[in-house]
Amino acid sequence: MHTLPATHIELAAWLRLSLATGLKPAALRLLLTAFGLPEAILQQDHETLAAIAGEAAARAALTPTGPEFDAQLDAVIAWRELPGNHLVTLDDPAYPPALLTMPDPPPMLYIKGRLELLHTRAVALVGSRSATPQGMDDAERFARTFSAAGVTVVSGLAQGIDGAAHRGGLEGVGSTVAAIGTGADLVYPAAHHALARQIAMQGAILSEWPLGTPARAANFPQRNRLIAGLVSGVLIVEAAMRSGSLITARLANEMGRDIFALPGSIHAPLSRGCHRMIKQGAKLVETPDEVLEELGFAKTAPVSASARREKSATQAVCSAAADRAVMARAPGEESAQTVAQVRASNMTGSSNRDAQRLLAALGYAPTPLEILATRTEMDHALLQTTLLQLELAGEISALPGGRYTRASHGRAAANCFDPA
Question: Between 20 and 30 A from 238 (CA), which of 31, 127, 342, 380?
Answer without folding.
Answer: 380
